[in-house]
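Input (structure):
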């Protein structure tokens, strides 16, 4: 019973956090430019270990050149690698794009599938990438995208006790975040992580979540101690 009470309290607190973040970041959305599920899938694969801004620069030309899954599958050796070079890890990413393109062309009639099961069977597509595509291209809240910002901010806010394992963090979050908000919740935390709750120097003094954040009070106390 006590545990249930705890979970209910945590849900309420999470809803308050979401309401404040919605007011703070009313335009929060997926930062990867795309106009179709295929484009978002490609951009998400390219975003591994790369900034969204860099991916958007690369995909501006890439999407004009490769318009179908088949086009990625048929990209000549060395050419696709060069096209995506500046996103880093380009050999692995090109391999994923070719494999993903071939699987979609051969097994899904050229259309990106819209289930977690089918998406995660595609080469180079893990649960995080599938969640991004399902939430943002298909409007399906199947899970919560857990990236470095979501990991850090949800830990500081005390929404999970898992510091590293993205699957366990996601499991904690889906228990307390309303399902209709799963996709938006990630965008809100990513925006907050970029703008205020930064890794090295979180701006706790000006954070709208301070009253609800256990870590914020500790950060402020530690800063005050340093100044003495
Ligand atoms: S109070 Fe500080 S640690 Fe907490 S969410 Fe805000 S910036 Fe992050």
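Output (sequence):
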């Amino acid at each position: 019973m006590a545990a249930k009470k705890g979970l209910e309290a945590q849900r309420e607190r999470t809803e308050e956090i979401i309401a404040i973040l919605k007011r703070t970041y009313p335009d929060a959305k997926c930062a990867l430019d795309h106009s179709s599920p295929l484009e978002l899938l490609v951009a998400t694969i390219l975003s591994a270990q790369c900034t969204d801004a860099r991916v958007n620069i690369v995909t501006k030309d890439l999407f004009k050149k490769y318009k179908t899954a088949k086009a990625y599958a048929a990209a000549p050796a060395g050419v696709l690698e060069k096209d995506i070079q500046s996103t880093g890890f380009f050999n692995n990413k090109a391999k994923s794009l070719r494999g993903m393109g071939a699987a979609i062309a051969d097994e899904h009639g050229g259309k990106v599938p819209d289930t977690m099961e089918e998406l995660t069977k595609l080469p180079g597509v893990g649960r995080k990438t599938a969640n991004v595509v399902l939430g943002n291209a298909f409007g399906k809240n199947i899970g919560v995208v857990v990236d470095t910002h979501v990991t850090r901010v949800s830990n500081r806010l005390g929404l999970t006790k898992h510091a590293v394992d993205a699957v366990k963090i996601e499991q904690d979050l889906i228990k307390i975040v309303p399902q209709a908000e799963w996709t938006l919740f990630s965008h809100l935390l990513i925006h907050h992580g970029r703008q205020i709750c930064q890794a090295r120097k979180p701006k706790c003094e000006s954070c709208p979540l301070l009253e609800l954040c256990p870590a914020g009070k500790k950060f402020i106390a530690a800063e005050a101690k340093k100044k003495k």
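Notes: The CA atoms of residues 4 and 157 lie 20 Å apart. Residues 153, 156-157, 196-197, 202-204, 207, 209-210, 213, 215-216, 219 surround iron/sulfur cluster (CB under 6 Å).
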